[in-house]
C-alpha cells in the first residue's frame, strides 16, 4: 500500500543501494500507481539529506543544436533505443514500437553547485502512461550515471543469498544465470533469491562491498530492498561438466566489465568511471568462473567451492 | 597507420590495459594487456602517423637494440595491434 503521506507535494523519493533520488512530476498519483509493482519497497517518505539526483519527468526534451559526438543504437526488448552523447550531456531516447511514441531522458554530465545531478524527461507528456520497461530503463541509466562515481554499479546478474552473504551469477543472456540460481534454491538449503536481473553492487571506502536488491529484476518479480555483504562474483559458462575456478585480477575484470550496463561503456567518461568502480569492487571481491551443466550438482559444486563446506 | 580514436591506456588491477568495447555485442569486449615497452610506444604514437620504421627508430633511440632486431620487433608489435583492431591504415 502506498499512502499519501509517503511523498511530499509533487516528489517521489526512492532509496536504492543507500542512494536517495527524487522523481518530480505533477502526475505523481498516476506515476505511483504505475510504479507500485516494483518500486514500492524502495519509496521513502522524503529525501531528508542530499539527493544523488533528481529527475523532472514532466518536461519536453529538446535536442541540442549540433550533432552528437557519438550515437549508440541498441534494442530494448522490441523497442529501438538510442544514446546520443553530446559534449555536455547524454540524451537517451526509446522509440516504443507499440505506441509509436518516443520517450527520452536528458542527463547533463555535470552536477549542480550542491553536487546533485538534475536530469529531465518527457515520460509523462507523451499522451500515454510510460510503459514500465521504458520507465525502468530511463531510471536505470540515470541512476547509473549518477552513482558510478560513488563506486556503485548495476550488474547484469542473478543474485542469491546464502549464509548471510550474496553471490552474483554473471554471464551473457541465455547462459543460464537464472537457471543456476534456481539450482541453488532447489538444492542448497538456506538459499534465497535477492534479484534476478540488475542488482546493485557498492564498494565503500573501508573495503566493504555490498550487494543490494533493486526495483529492477527483469522477468522475475523479485524486488527486495535488502542488502548483504558480497561473497563473490561468479561468471557462468555452459560446459559438459561442473567446475569452479578462481580468476586472476585481469581476467576477473574482463569477466565483470561486459556485465555492466552497455550504455555505461560507450562514452569515455562513463567508461572511465565504470572501470574505476569495477577495480574498486574487485580489490576486495573474488571472481570465479563456473563452467557448468544446468543441474543440481552444479549448485553443489559451486556451493562447496564458494563456502568451503 | 594511426592508433584508432577512443582507445587509451587504463590502469586496472595494477596493469596497463586497453579496453576495447564491442559496439553491438558484449561478447566482443576485449581487454588487451600492455607491457612497459608497449605503454611507452603507445604514449609516443597516440595521434601520430607511424609505420614499422618509425617504431624501430623509437626503439633504437631508447633501448640497447640493433636496427634489424628493432625492425623485427616493431613489425611484430604492429601485427599485434592490428590483430586486436587497435590501428587504422
Description:
The complex is a heterodimer of chains A (309) and B (89). In chain A, helix 3 (177-187) crosses helix 6 and helix 4 (249-256) crosses helix 5. Chain A has six helices and 18 strands. Helix content of chain A is 24%, strand content 33%. With 89 residues, chain B is an alpha+beta fold. Chain B is built from three helices and five strands, in the order E-E-E-E-H-H-H-E. The radius of gyration of chain B is 14 Å and the shape is globular. The mean pLDDT of chain B is 89.
- Taking strands numbered 1, 2, ... along the chain, how are they ordered across the largest sheet of chain B? 2-3-4
Strand content of chain A: 25-35%
Helix content of chain B: 40-55%
The ordered H/E elements of chain A are EEHEEEEEEEHEEEHEEEEEHHEH
CATH fold naming of chain B: Arc Repressor Mutant, subunit A
Shape of chain A: globular
**Can you tell me the overall shape of chain B?**
globular
Low-confidence spans of chain B: none
> Mind describing the biggest β-sheet of chain A?
9 strands, mixed
User: Do you know the CATH architecture of chain B?
Assistant: Orthogonal Bundle
Any idea how many domains of chain B?
Answer: 1
Strand neighbour order, sheet with most strands of chain A = 3-1-2-4-9-8-7-6-5
Which class do the helix and strand fractions of chain B yield?
A: alpha+beta
In short:
Chain A is an alpha+beta fold. Chain A has 6 helices and 18 strands. In chain A, β14 and β15 form a beta hairpin.
Amino acid at each position: 500500500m502506498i499512502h499519501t503521506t509517503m511523498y511530499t507535494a509533487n516528489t517521489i523519493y526512492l532509496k536504492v543501494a543507500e542512494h536517495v533520488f527524487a522523481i518530480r512530476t505533477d502526475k505523481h498519483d498516476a506515476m505511483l500507481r504505475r510504479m507500485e509493482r516494483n518500486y514500492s519497497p524502495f519509496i521513502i517518505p522524503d529525501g531528508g539529506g542530499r539527493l544523488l539526483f533528481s529527475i523532472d519527468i514532466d518536461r519536453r526534451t529538446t535536442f541540442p543544436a549540433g550533432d552528437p559526438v557519438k550515437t549508440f543504437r541498441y534494442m530494448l526488448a522490441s523497442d529501438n533505443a538510442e544514446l546520443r552523447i553530446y559534449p555536455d550531456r547524454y540524451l537517451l531516447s526509446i522509440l516504443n514500437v507499440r505506441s509509436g511514441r518516443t520517450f527520452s531522458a536528458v542527463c547533463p554530465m555535470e552536477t549542480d553547485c550542491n553536487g546533485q545531478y538534475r536530469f529531465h524527461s518527457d515520460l509523462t507528456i507523451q499522451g500515454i502512461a510510460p510503459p514500465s520497461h521504458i520507465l525502468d530503463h530511463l531510471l536505470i541509466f540515470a541512476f547509473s550515471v549518477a552513482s558510478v562515481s560513488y563506486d556503485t554499479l548495476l550488474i547484469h546478474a542473478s543474485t542469491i543469498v546464502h549464509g548471510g552473504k550474496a553471490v552474483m551469477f554473471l554471464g551473457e543472456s541465455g547462459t543460464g544465470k537464472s537457471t543456476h540460481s534456481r539450482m541453488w534454491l532447489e538444492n542448497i538449503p538456506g538459499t534465497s533469491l535477492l534479484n534476478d536481473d540488475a542488482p546493485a553492487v557498492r564498494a565503500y571506502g573501508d573495503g566493504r562491498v555490498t550487494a543490494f536488491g533493486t526495483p529492477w529484476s527483469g522477468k522475475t518479480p523479485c524486488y527486495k530492498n535488502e542488502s548483504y555483504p558480497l561473497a563473490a562474483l561468479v561468471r557462468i559458462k555452459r560446459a559438459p561438466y561442473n567446475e569452479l575456478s578462481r580468476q586472476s585480477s585481469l581476467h576477473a575484470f574482463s569477466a565483470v566489465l561486459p556485465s555492466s550496463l552497455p550504455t555505461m561503456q560507450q562514452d569515455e567518461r562513463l567508461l572511465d568511471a565504470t572501470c574505476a568502480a569495477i577495480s574498486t569492487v574487485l580489490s576486495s571481491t573474488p571472481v570465479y568462473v563456473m563452467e557448468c551443466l544446468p543441474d543440481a550438482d552444479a549448485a553443489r559444486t559451486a556451493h562447496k567451492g564458494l563456502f568451503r563446506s | 597507420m594511426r592508433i584508432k580514436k577512443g582507445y587509451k591506456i587504463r590502469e586496472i588491477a595494477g596493469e596497463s590495459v586497453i579496453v576495447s568495447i564491442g559496439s553491438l555485442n558484449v561478447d566482443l569486449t576485449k581487454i588487451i594487456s600492455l607491457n612497459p615497452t608497449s605503454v611507452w610506444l603507445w604514449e609516443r604514437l597516440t595521434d601520430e602517423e607511424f609505420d614499422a620504421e618509425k617504431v624501430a627508430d623509437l626503439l633504437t633511440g631508447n633501448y640497447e637494440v640493433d636496427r634489424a632486431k628493432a625492425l623485427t620487433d616493431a613489425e611484430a608489435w604492429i601485427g599485434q595491434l592490428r590483430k586486436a583492431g587497435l590501428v587504422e591504415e
